């Protein structure tokens, strides 16, 4: 429904803070995945590892967009009368929700590829030093014991964070449409 200005401020502050927290958590998750595994795995010749890198980089960019959207929501809550802040939040929330949706789909494909190849692409940089394929016989630039489960766990966390970012970015978008009084043209969609 329609909110009075003080209610708009409260909703914008809550949504902005939630977007800031989600964006930072997703940024940290993406940095952990890249720093622990993907920096060793990425090769331009392997399409799967290239997909991992592109998806992880897009996830970090989406996290930065979400953080920007949260900051913009907080600024708009302070200066509710400024049209420039409303339009900035409209653009940022639309871009953030679309980018997060693309990352969500990319993460889903990356998780599926990893489950499908049982982590062989993640362990590709490891060279076997002896004929016996024991876990201790591999020389890796990283600890290979929990790479498969750790990467999948971090991607699952990032997947959940992306879904939450989409929800709150769309919430910001709809609230901004109402503030700009553009909600009347798409009144049925907002309900």
From TrEMBL:
TM spans (from-to): 12-37, 57-76, 88-113, 152-174
Listed Pfam families: BCLP (PF12304)
Cellular compartment(s): Membrane
Keyword Membrane assigned: yes
Gene Ontology cellular-component annotations: membrane
Coiled-coil regions listed in the entry: none
Family (UniProt): Belongs to the TMEM54 family.
Protein name listed in UniProt: TMM54 protein
